[in-house]
Queue: 4 jobs
Job 1
Amino acid sequence: MKLQFSPEDEQFRAEIAGWLADNLVGEFAQLKFRGGPGDEHMFPEERKAWERKLAEGGWTCVGWPKEVGGRGLSIEQQVIFFEEYARAGAPGRMGHIGEGLAGPTLIAFGSEEQKSKYLPGILSGTEFWCQGYSEPSAGSDLANVKTKARFDEASGKWQINGQKVWTSLAHESEYCFVIARTDPESKAHKGLGFFLIKMDQPGVTVRPIEQITGTSEFNEVFFDDAECAAEDIVGQPGDGWKVAMGLLGFERGVSTLGQQMAFQNELNEVVKLAKDNGAAKDPLIRQRIADAHIGLKIMRYNSLRMLSGGSDGSLQKEALIYKLYWATWHRDLGELAVDILGPEADIMVNAPYELNRLQSLFLFTRSDTIYGGTNQIQRNIIAERGLGMPKELRPV
Amino acid sequence: MDFAFTEEQQMIRDTAAAFLKASSSSAAVRAAMVSDKGFDPALWQSICADMYWQALHIPEQYGGMGLGYVELVAVLEQMGRYLLCAPYMSSVAMATNALLVAGTDAQKALYLPQIIEGKIASLAFNSASRDWDACAVSVTYRRDGNDFILNGNYRYVLDGDNADVMVFAARDEGSVGENGISLFVCPTDLNGIERAALPTMDQTRRQATITVTNLRLDESTVMGDVGKADKHLNKILDLATIALAAEQAGGMQEVLDMSVEYSKSRSQFGRTIAGFQAIKHKAADMMLRGEVARSAVYYAACIADEALNDGPLANELSEAASIAKSHCSEAYFKNAGEALQIHGGVGFTWEYDVHLYFKRAKASEHFLGGSGYHRERVAKMLLD
């Protein structure tokens, strides 16, 4: 076991930290610590400009292979990149769905034509993506997709009908990748297709969802005879589930340390508040602050284990528990933050409903234990895949 | 950066697991825990002569293997998993660490080879205090010429009744807090040392009380700086705390394995109880706590190596120890409690092994400080 990064990696750390210090200035200075979870609706145009700036420096898609235009960084250097990005307070990435999900899916499963059509826009920070998986009837039961895709022989195009929900950044995106049912008789994960759909067309309607925070980052997306070109299905009709799930097994969590750096920023604010307002003298608050600190430290050690694990990409036990662990930790931090605020937690910054960062943290972290697999679904997955316990009964 | 066991470390862990699975079986544990000494002397000799575990992290110049704390932790995890009844925590994680941290060359040359040969050693410092650092010391010493005269009563001394060699912490008469602390090492057959085993609820770990009455120790027994050994004692206790957390992580794994296996074999309402979400979700939480415990323990072990070798991260020792112990203490007890619940009625019997882990978990939680104690240590670092 070795805790330190190599001198080359530390040199790389200095390089990215230096670039961020030089460039996160001027028009971009206002974006520091903005645009993260709970704040994703803020500064969309400015953050898109920042994406282009990143691209100019070669700092988009740092983990993609060089052959497709990425920076081809090692696992260690990707970790360092995300860590330094968060440490500098650089803004929440508008391009993260394209870079982290759409792009890697196309690199793994897409045709050459699809790669040359879509990857450049992601690399250059000029085209943005959203994810069309969840539906009103497909939440935890993600495969219960009702959206239909029918190939129209007359036009030679796919026609998409249905509704997606909880679609982050849909109103800011050029494209959406959608799983839709190509075989109307099929059920569950069979008979699905994976489609690349242009958002700017008459058949696509985006409606923001007003959240518990009073703000809107998530949307509903309605498809009414929306069109998708014949060549814009990834894989074959029926392959949709395989394509959608294909990359999950290879997720090694390179961005987790960056996420934790953002958590550290939040925890620092909580600790400072407790010292300032005297809550740090309360024995129970002290225990909870220490517990939060300990939990975040262990989260980091867990990630280091995850990142050092098997090179075959197999999902290890420490990776299996990660979502349940961080989501619960983060939700607890939100509760701790408002308990330290005490009665001030109820007082808004401004009418009608402007939240400060800690109030927003408290409310927004309730989504952490729900999206991306609820805590309950995570426990099913851990028990079934990690411990070999019987699978949930499902209709055949 | 590579935060995974090397192949050699994996081999050490796997060898330990295989050896202890055979030699520290349920029957072996149950026989040892009610025996006179509380452990099986033949097994202890085998651990010493065949496995070299006492020698693991002792430098080669004293006849040891010169390995690190990560290797030690890999073995301790398996000892906790199989509830090994042996004076290992006391001899290796407490007394050996004391000698490595504070011993003179002469003391190391004298005692470390004895420990490697299977002599039992321990550390006495606490006299029924809820503190687990230098502040816990209340046995006193006074100078008499070049000698030191010790008086007082120690409690919670691991294997104190069986030890051949003792490290004693004592304070200068009239001193308080972390001031005035000195450490001494001596054989246990001196006049003025009275020892008695304390019957324990967790029968797998032996504790004793030691009364010292006008115990006269000469200058050659002094470890570290006279009156200023608090920093040594605290470092020794941090190292011991990490070792104990490793045992706890191992115990957590075993109670999870037992519970999952039992739930797959137990049928109610026409199906195995392993299929019920009420059981699956308990097991999932147990696995989460266990994996997280390992991450904390392995990190702390790396820091312990840094501390023993004055590496750049050495000053993280107290924090790393408290992080590991605060998580592992509550987590092991929660897991043991859930294991008992998943086993249902049979978990309440003497016949099934769950109660052995349940009791060990609670005793280990308290020893060297529980979760609340260690969280407050961290809170002081952050807030005061």
Job 2
Amino acid sequence: MHFLNLFVVVPALTIVAILFTRDLKGARWASAVGMSIQLVLAGALVFMYLSARNAGVADEMLFTADSTWFPSLNIRYAIGVDGISVAMIALTAVVIFAGVFASWEMEFLSREFFISLILLCSGVFGFFISLDLFTMFLFYELAVIPMYLLIGIWGSGPKEYSAMKLTLMLMGGSALLTVGILGLYFHSAAAGGQHTFHILEIAKTDIPVTAQRFFFPFTFIGFGILGALFPLHTWSPDGHSSAPTAVSMLHAGVLMKLGGYGCFRVAMFLMPEAANEMAWIFIILTTISVVYGAFGAIWQKDLKYINAYSSVSHCGLVLFALLMMNQTAMNGAIIQMISHGLMTALFFALIGMIYSRTHTRIIDQMGGLMKVIPFLSAVYVIAGLASLGLPGLSGFVAEATIFVGAFQHADTFHRVVTIVATTSIVITAVYILRVIGILLLGPIKNEHFEHLGDAHWYERISTIILVLGIAGIGLAPLWLSDMINFSLAPIIGKLSGLVNDVPLVLN
Amino acid sequence: MNLSDLMIMRHELLLTLLAVSILIMDLGAGPKHRYLVLPVSLILFFVNLIIGFLPVREGTLFGGMYHTSGLIILMKNILNIGFFIVMLQSFTWLKKEENKLKMSEFYVLLLATLIGMNFMISSGDFLMFYLGLELATIPMAALAAYVHHQTRSAEAGIKLILISALSSGILLFGLSMIYGTTGSIFFNEVKAAYSSEPLQVLGFIFFFAGMGFKISLVPFHLWTADVYEGAPVGVTSYLSVISKGAAVFIFILVLYTVFTSIDFLWKDLTYIIAVLTMTIGNLFALRQKNLKRLLAFSSIAQAGFILLGIIAGSKLGMASVIYFILVYIFSNLGAFGVVAAIHDHTGKESMDDYNGLYHTNPRLSLLMMLSLFSLAGIPPVAGFFGKFFLFTSAASGGYYWLVFIAVLNATISLYYYLLVVKAMFINKNDHPIEPFSSDITTRLGLLICTAGIVALGFYNTVYELINKLSIGIN
């Protein structure tokens, strides 16, 4: 069997294994084993990828396989990875691994929970290995729909409302996507060949600019909804705060990255002219996301809402950097995806663990946790510092690269939006330090909290692997950015030569 | 013409034979053995279903009134499959005490409508078409009024017969105009003589309206909800799937082979009606609490989606319509099968009764969820492929805005399908429906639906076969 197929087959087999278990104990061990295998596979994939590149393989996509599915429509099951998708797969494997350990005590309908969770992650893996728009879209929807049950059944707070809102908004996004994908398909035969869904083949044809103008907004906004593009981000705070811990981790950590990944792999890569023409609209929207999300986080009192708004801000930054369309900024965008994925997963894991001890998420009701649960508190501080961009952790690498890249544009429009977006760093520092101050330091406000137990072994596994990832990227970012840079080249190649066409109105 | 020529009517002949033999069995069997009639007719129909797949000669009969081809045989076989599932699902209900005296009539009447549909699909002129249509409709009214001691059921029967009479009248009026202007009722002669003369256009619009009643397109849909709610569950599922499917089959055949010269006209009409049907069907479904009514309105919306395939006017369009109907048979019968099973055991059919169903009847809930997801077009179940191909065919004609409206409607429909899922999986209930186990026939019916829903998408051969047999305009 082809190596990449394993990334879909292993979750599928894990689901089958869970079906044969009887209770929580069996289900969680089955998932843990399955996802450990997945993690090892992801490590092997990174290794194989790097050694292939070092050996001088210069193909755009590696490990490709291609088999026909519906011949009459030329729908194929085509898979392959480049540096960017390898990085995303590694991220997903780490987050789902941590997520399984973070839901170790999921008592209620535990088998169903793990099955839905792993179904969700198999959709994500499938999405990242796909090269065919049809299968990509199939996996995309497969990743979205289990969210409804995961939030609706195991969530907290106004879970039914949040679950419905999230599902319908994301499905609305895929409504836009359908049109975009079909538009690409029917314009892919410009050279007189057969219509195709294959991304690399579409990239070779020049799609007429008029068609691009029509379909680019559909595709970009369709993926952008999942990437929390302002003003269509509203599903994100509600969804994340109602979801159970592992689902918030996976959703904010990985699923939102599907949006960013799709935006550049499909929308921008395949429709470069339109991307250049319309970038300014979306740059303004994402700048609003970045600043607004950060401000939103300041007002919140609920830990999950704080982190959800911070995700809106950070994911906004991803789209912002992508739209800058130069090597440095796009590189920063990918690193930001990885960094934010690890960081936000860590945050949500910690919030879940703290909540399971204190039974509250309102920061004013807690205080002095550093004294009673030092391990969790220390990790919280690390996550916080990564989030506000302290050098040595992943957040710094990402944000520094993004802003350097964005500032390379010399015109007024880009300069202004970059400066506006940079303010988010300060605002982020405000809300992170405020939470740390109130939550972890100071006196213990509630006497019941004096006897809380610190992290269990499974919670330590879950957090340590995420911290390792954050510190690893922060201390040795070059291998990651090299891997990304190589694969960004063809995308930049399509976009460049067109850059800097900022409409005259704005200059 | 000799006897072997007659054999190309194999589907119709076998069904007639079956209907007559069930009647005779019912007469001949004593009171002790009457319970055997149902299982025997099930088995006989299954044999007929298998024989249907054996190769058969193509050809025409009666001077072109009747014709058959690989495509038509395929359509008949699809209807046969759906019919078999309906037979299985109504089995438990027919065995009840209240139906004891008339249980075999149910199958006979149902078979009569199927024979009508087969003739309708095979028709080569408007006379045969009309005869088939009437044969497919009139017994339906008797079936809808089958539970004669219930006012709702009687009301459904009356409504159905009145609406059918009205729509047949309109249709017939249109046909008479077509005959008047072209001088023929044969499809190929009508095709040759057709242009966009005003009277011909009017005749066509009347024909379209008549078919609109049968497929329950907006604005001709008003009868649907009441009839679906009042009729027994088995009849409702039959009406919403098989009747609708057969009407769509002949509709697309006639549009693609007869009215080709005015395709611009019917494409515009279809565009408007598709938007109306999807939107209004969905908006009404949003507020329904009774599951039969909910599925009724959702089936109106689904008919709107089907029009997206018709509008393409191409081979791809016809293939996606036939494939979608095949998928729709499994999905909708899966949903109705669960409703029927629960109705048989508890008599409940409101959404609130389904609260907490997963905790007591997990398998039924899972199947219901799969069917609803398939209806909504969620991967990896077959409905996703069906819908995507419909959208693809509409996009191939350049109707991107129509596709967009349709996908938005699919999202709206997801809302009410999710409400049912929410009731079963999320809502709490102090008195959920007790756990029960169904009969072997019901289970078999549900099992076939599940297999269809899960496998049809991934198993590409089915779609490719349909695509090979399909035809476009010209």
Job 3
Amino acid sequence: MVKNLIKNLTSSLLESLRDLAPILAVITFFQLVILQEHIPDLPALLGGIFLVAIGLTLFVYGLRIGLFPIGESMAHSFAGKGSLFWILVFAFALGFGTTIAEPALIAVGNEAAVVAADGGMIASTPESIKNYADGLRFTVALSVGLAIVIGVLRIIRGWPIQYLIISGYICVVIMTIFAPPWIIGIAYDSGGVTTSTITVPLVTALGVGLATSIRGRNPMTDGFGLIAFASLTPMIFVMGYGMLL
Amino acid sequence: MSSGIMNFLHTLASTARDVIPIVLIIFGFQVFVLRRKMPNLGMVLTGLLLVLLGMTFFLQGLEQALFPLGKLMAKQLTAPEFLGLSGSDSEPHYFWLYVFAAAIGFSTTIAEPALIAVAIKANEVSSGAVGTWGLRIAVAIGVAFGIALGTYRIITGTPVHYYIIVGYILVVIQTFFCPKQIIALAYDSGGVTTSTVTVPLVAALGLGLSSNIPGRNPLLDGFGLIAFASLFPIMSVMAYAQLSDWQSKRIKKAKSKRYGG
């Protein structure tokens, strides 16, 4: 038992090191050959790489025994309960709750507020900058909550994903025409930063679990797609926020 | 040494703060709405703890080693002296910058934990038809192309939305021709690529570029790289599916020719 565990952990540690090899190669090549400088603190770099590898190994292991089973068992329980209302409430809570505290989003919100103040859209006082950043963060969290709701509803009803996503694209293009130019870059970026490393596996397992439990759904064609909605709606909502305020 | 431990505890606390809302939502619904005990509760909690510890080690290692060096290199490679922007007689040269942009996009995507998670799930669900490495490499190629093109956009100063709209049109066209099975997964792979490892390094690249290229404003032109990195993987994953579909059809055809008569 213990022997097996050690064997498994060693092999996944090696896998993690292999995942990190490309970064190490890129950094070494550019530092030594292109910039022609030595690596500043080699022991610290190697120690850091080792920490990253351990972290990745533990993460993947925890994913398999923790996050994936949680998402799947919740999906099965909700499908068994058969209440559309509660599963949509859960979908919204999960999208909203995981996004509102996302550090990458907090950073983007603050930058956006500084840009807005710089362009004279809002007053340059710390208070109005903070209000603006908080409002933006709330808007994005709301849009991700809504995205997961739409995505879950799509899995339950079996709607083809491409029509919904293409309609979303058309929305983005129309909003781009009317939105103030300075918010466009921020809005487009906000789509990519909302989904964190812990949210993605959980939401993916939820979608696949739902598609597996509902008769007539295929986990491959219907189970994926929740993340796609979560990276599309923030663009639309952030541009809307820029137009209204 | 003690500062290392302090750092570790600090990272652990901030990771825990990210995980707590998720745990509260899950167990809140489990207790008050579903009113069912989660199967294998002990195992699941151990898994959550491992995820928490894993993220902490991961972030700690990145902060300690890769981020400072990567950010420093992004700064050096976008410095006016390196790009040949300071001398009035020489032409600016961006070749190595594009190579760096693509290489850093590719390599950070391969190490992105969220993508590893989705690849494991896709492999499981497709019963092996979608290879974990195939998917990850396809996504990484998309990100590499996206970041390199985003770099070109910052250098030339063209508006973000022209590229994105053309990208959308290409995605829509590809959607009609690619195998139905892969569409949802391909759309998803746009959002999972940019998180823990990629965003800080790419942001440093965008900031360095937009503050050093004359006529660019870091507040306005620094954005957009993430958007590119989330769009092109959709295309590269669909292309990967089309290629493997085409290849398997060709093998089938060759086989039926050989054994068919």
Job 4
Amino acid sequence: MPDLISYLQFVLAPQMLNGLALGVSVILVALGLTIIFGLLDVINMSHGEFYAVGAFGALALSALGFNYWVLIALVPILMIPIGVLTERFLIRRVYDGGDRHVSTLLLTFGLGMIAEDLLKIVFGPNTHRPENPLPGATEVLGVFIPTYRLFLIAIGAVVIVAVALVVYRTRLGAMVRAAAFDRNMAASLGVRVGWVYSGAFAFGVALAGLAGVLLAPIYSVFPTMGHDFILMAFTVVIVGGMGSIWGAVIAGVLLTQIQAISSLVISPVWADPIVFGVMVLVLMFRPQGIFGRIGHA
Amino acid sequence: MLKIDQLHAHYGLAHVLQGVSLTADAGEVIGLFGRNGVGKTTFFKTIAGWLRPTDGSVTLDGETLTGHSPDAMNRAGVAIVPEDRRIFPGLSVEENLVLGLMGRKGGSSKSHLDTVYDRFPRLAERRKQAGNTLSGGEQQMLAMARVMVAEPRVVLIDEPSEGLAPMIVAEVFAIIREMREAGTIVLLVEQNVHEAISLCDRFMVLERGQAILTGEGDDDDDRKRLLDVLAV
């Protein structure tokens, strides 16, 4: 019995907390992805690069002397115009013509490649490791957990709740959900759908940027860093339901916990295949994901 | 005055509207009749800005609205209650109504919702319910209330009685009469011609995207011609 308690306390619990920190990180990236898909019906293949741009933006601004805590607010704000310009001048141009999914997918894929190469040109191909703003560990139930990971879980939860409140409890959120369901009807009630689309895209990009700032101290900063998270984020969005905020949250926690716990009993190299196996099963038996799409019942 | 002049619209190569003209004064109800697929709904979609006209013009009180986006049409005072109601299923009754308030001139407040709830007590009872949980009749009431709350100058109502019980249809028609009394121009597409004609000041019959008959709603000869043309 004492062995079991020790296992739960010193092996399982820390592993699950690490999994939760990873889960919150993935959810932060997936939230923007799912909002953009749910509203605009655009599979944003450049989302990982927006995440990287956020991380590099924080790196560059901290070199200019900005405090890390200021960057958490500043970087997402700076990402907003990037999102608006991308939606207005690129996405919108191909949005109504021909096959929307293919054309926007190819466009954002190309945009991601350009962004990645620009980051390589400007910052070089090497890995940067920003200073951890909260070094050390905090004792939780007799186990020492890195303080920054605890902060990440807390701020991630705050961001998730804030996003959910905006989307489900405000008039702005009602406009977004209405436009996601039926853009013509929403517009005929006076909703400026073009602004809503730009705003939602920019919001998604800002969330990716915020994720970049928050995760940089843990996962390092390098031009291809978007690749690491985007696969997992897409998996979360598919399992949770394309365009569902709560789906992204639940799938994000669920999949990263599966990954964390399975790593305890089998080789960690099998953790990813298990997670992607869950995605395949969901696609086979419930292709719409756990939850429905934003704006839909 | 609403003036629609020689309106043309296409779906790809299909020439769906072929020069339809119409005028309506404040407080008039104009019925648009015709079989399925003759262009009635397309006519509404073109006026509402959902479909760009390929020719012709739409003016309201002298202001040209041709080709405006749906939200610009809303701001100009043109509202639409579409055939399938298009209630947002993921939004509550109140959220649906709050979106309707966005088109209201001179600002909006929750007190405007109280007026709607007084008129539609059933919606007040269900204000927190999701749109898709309402019955067909309640959804129709919500669709009408959602545009009424903005006090538009023109309302396009497409097949409001479709699939509804006679008692609810009578209520829907009563609401249209209220709109007329408030000075709103109502363009009404309705398959239930016998009921609807009693409501209309004037009517127009469409066939293959063109007006083939116009008349007065209270003129017995015009009514007879209408019923002959529609063979009902």
